[in-house]
Amino acid sequence: MSAECREPGPGGHSGASGSGACLPRSTSAPWRLPRWRARAAAAVLCYVNLLNYMNWFIVAGMLLDIQNFFQIQDSNAGLLQTVFICCLLLSAPVFGYLGDRHSRKATLSIGILLWSGAGLASSFISPQYSWLFFLSRGVVGIGSASYSTIAPTVLGDLFVRDQRTRVLAIFYIFIPVGSGLGYVLGSAVLQLTGNWRWGFRVMPCLEAVALILLIALVPDPPRGAAEKQEEAVETPRSSWCEDVSWSFVWSTLGVTAIAFVTGALGFWAPKFLFEARVVHGLQPPCLQDPCNSQDSLIFGILTVVTGIIGVVLGAEASRRYKKVNPRAEPLICACSLLTAAPCLYLALVLAPVTLLASYVFLALGELLLSCNWAVVADILLSVVLPRCRGTAEALQITVGHVLGDAGSPYVTGLISGILRAGRPDSYLQSFLSLQQSFLCCTFVIALGGGCFLLTALRLEGDQALARQPGTGTPDSKDAESRALLSGTRVAAEDP
């Protein structure tokens, strides 16, 4: 396998001989990592993941003010998130390829520099150059792609089995937490300063700390190190397409459905809740900056709380249920999505009637959606070979964003604009148009539940194929014994 042949050893030397043949792992020194270093690396990666997702949704927390500043209508405002996601998905395969073949640590560092620099630059754009603001969001998306693609594979090479499930659960907690804090930071900075630009000037300070910690504490482990894999001398290399399993395909489609809904909700929900309050007479309409809306702050706190609870519940349920049912992971994802669909539907239709009930069902829907974050990552790592994980993460990200949240904010805003064009010009009709454009999300999330049910049908067979000897992950006691004899241990794994 050419990728594994070039894997550097502890001394930085190539694992291939001068003739180009691969040497068995047993002939090279073992790769070791102290437990404290593995935990410190996981903590740093979680912190950077927090900042990553704060960048995703900080615009949504200040959307009304940004729209007023650049004179952007609803039909075009969704393009801010669409440009971000499109650039992310176009660059994700590139970073996946680089992550499977070159230094993952260097690639992560470049990504942080890209998104922090673009975010800071966007705070100095004049109102007549709105296209530059759209462009800056695209550059932020490119930087984010490097992290979303590569960071989970680094964790996958530091931890195994139950430890991996727990660490991934903590890592993916910071998706909803970071998303929620993005709303909170944008809303809080806006209220303190009266200027939305300062939201983009605070983030680079936090990201500079993240970059220093990443360089100092995060290692670049050999690919597949956590599985104590051995590289056979004459292991045939199959094509990447031959390594793709149906479990991966169906779970990727399920992730796409989740991305579609979270993309639409994440971008438009604060404005939807604001307009609902206007309709109920609890808030005056926003006609000029600053809007002083509390809904971004409320929605952000709601996202943080439900995200933490949901990810922990999903990961813990998966860990316990796997002991009695090997198909636990996709079944948990399916049940959570099929239950989230009616909750989101009720949150939408009850908003004109009672805000309290709408908030309750919205919180339940977000909690159920958050149950999937760590579980779907564990599914991917269990059915994909270690040497393909970076590329697999990139493919899943690309498909999920192309068919999911790349278009859902724009499609939602476009449908709302079309519905509003044929109605009287009033705040009530504006609210109803946005409400009705959201209803497609309930059907998409139900389809996602069906995709995870199909994943459950193929999971066991695909996991067995990924663990077969010669694929890079040992599947027997003999393989374990060979790994122990060769001295290849990962210190981060408990005996």
Sheet having the most strands: none
Estimate the strand proportion. Answer: under 5%
Helix content: over 70%
Shape from CA axes? Answer: globular
Structural class, please?
mainly alpha
Poorly predicted runs of 5 or more residues: 1-30, 229-238, 470-495
> Quick check: average pLDDT?
77
Radius of gyration: 23 Å
Number of strands: 0
Kindly report how far apart the N and C termini lie: 30 Å
Number of helices: 19
Please provide the ordered H/E string of secondary-structure elements.
HHHHHHHHHHHHHHHHHHH
Describe the fold and architecture:
This protein is mostly helical. It is built from 19 helices and no strands.
List keywords for this structure.
495 residues; mainly alpha; 19 helices; disordered N terminus; disordered C terminus
